[in-house]
Amino acid sequence: MAVEASRRGFLRSVGIAGGAGMLYSAMGALGLAPVPEVSAEEYRAPRSGDFALSGRSRKKVLVLGGGIAGLATAYELGKAGYDCRILEAKDRPGGRNWTVRGGTTLTDLDGRTQKASFSKGQYMNAGPARLPQSHVTLEYCRELGVPLEVFTNQNANAYIYQENSAALAGKPMRWRTAKADVYGYVSELLAKATDRGSLDKELTATDKERLIAFLQNFGAIKGKADGFAYTGSDRRGYSVEPGAAFEEGTVLGPVPSLSDVVASGVGQRFSFEFGYDQAMLMFQPVGGMDAIPYALAKAVGQDRITYGAKALEVKNLQDGAEVTYQDADGRTRTQRADFVVAAIPPMVMARVKHNLGADVTAALKYPTAVPVGKVGLEYGSRWWETDEHIYGGITPTDMDLSTIWYPSYGYQGRRGTLIGYYNFGANAVAYSDLPHAQRVERAVSRGVKIHGEKYRSELEHAFSVAWHRTPYIEAGWVGWTSQTGPEYQLLNKPAGHVYFAGDWLSHVIAWQHGAFTSARKVVTDIHERVMAA
Ligand code: PHE
Fold first, then answer.
1. Is the domain of 172 the same as that of 253?
2. Nearby residues of 521 by Cβ (< 8 Å), 6 or more positions away
């Protein structure tokens, strides 16, 4: 009663003070609105009036790294008129946000060079490739005019392929078939147990009735008279499609036994799409993920970005900071600024000479680099669409290639580019140890088991990236043993006039959202410091 009364009182008071909109969002905060509003942390970009109105002179900021975090830092600070310069070691913006097209080259840390020979219009997103609806990345796409299209992360027609399971091994199974069988048998078991009284401690008579009604719907199982049996349904798919006149279609069979379905482990794949960041709908920029860094670079101003600039030393000074780097012509140069933002991977920054202290170096070395690899395979036909009716989506496997991705662009076209492996850890290292041609051969030898010989015979071009063997990047992403320990704390604070930014300093590692929000945090910290001085 007391709680209710004070709730009402609170709502009335904000209702009076703030109007209906505010009342509504306050209801959300209390869990009363139909769907509570969720958004990224409050962020207010620095504004152009902030300097002029307060009579302060605009500050100079040097950013190390033209990846998403570095670009976003310069972009946001630029809104208030900060004089930002970006030093980027590579010859392009984006960092791991990298779209490979025909002509793209890569020389890895082992000195091996590849040149992509993809056809016109074909590309692979070698780094980030999917955007969830909740990520601020979508807000930046809106702000920067980067058009989006759906990225298909989950497709009922894609397969699950397990060759090491006890049962059904080596047989690609469509997601829809796997779901029909797992949901069906689980429903059968639970309905039987419920009906038999095995759950009477947990359930009232009404609960039992409702639960059974749900399970019949969820699992497409038979009624009580037939023992709630799961015997298959058209949810599995068809071996002969229904059609005109007398063609009813033939439901795919035979239905494997409950024991085999459980042993196959296919059900363990389902939770992937329950993940907060991996659930449909997802998006991708039209024409390649690198539309984001190129739009950011344009907004920052191309003249503010120096490519081919390799950081050699970062010095915190009494009243600023300075960076010494080697330029594209091999000359050593030094630039001074009020602040430096190091938006490069921690293990790379750890090797840059600096005067920020041994504890900073130790903290930078603390997160561990995660090996990640990807291969793009261009085919002369879209056989996965024409022969297998797979339009986008992903086939997870228990092979070392991990997953095969079907393209979410160019449907019904003449050619198309798959991702033939996207793997982490030991699997990524196993592939990266091989020269490019052998990586492709290995991936193809696995893919043939799912898709047949055309997986080899139709292949025309391939390009592989091993992020952990890529200069100035050296990992797909990093992992922290602890993000509450002193290392993480230290790097989330400035070392004098030097700040750190990147997805690695967020709780959304391996997503551009992490890089954007980290940049916003550093921008806010710098701007508050400047405005307070
Ligand atoms: N964002 C990357 C991806 O979607 C890496 C990642 C995978 C991050 C799984 C979290 C979970 O593939």
1. yes
2. 492, 501, 505
- Quick one: 360 and 377 in the same domain? no
Total structural domains within the chain: 3
Give tens-digit pLDDT for 316-361. 999 999 999 999 999 999 999 999 999 999 999 999 999 999 999 9
Which protein residue has the closest C-alpha to ligand 1 atom 8? 510
Regarding the beta carbon of 511 and ligand 1, being less than 6 Å apart is answered yes
- Name the burial class of residue 121, with classes exposed (0-12), middle (13-18) and buried (19+) by CB atoms within 10 angstroms of its CB: middle
Question: CB of 468 closer than 6 A to ligand 1?
Answer: no
Q: What share of the chain is helix, strand, coil (3-state, %, to 5)?
A: 40, 20, 40
Structural domain including 486 reads: 59-92+301-367+480-532
Distance 77 CA to ligand 1 centre (A): 28
Residue nearest to atom 2 of ligand 1 (CA): 510
Q: What is the pTM of this model?
A: 0.93
Which residues, in sequence order, are bridge partners of residue 251?
238
Number of DSSP helices (H) and strands (E) in the chain, helices first: 16, 27
Cβ-in-10-Å burial (0-12, 13-18, 19+) of 204 comes to: exposed
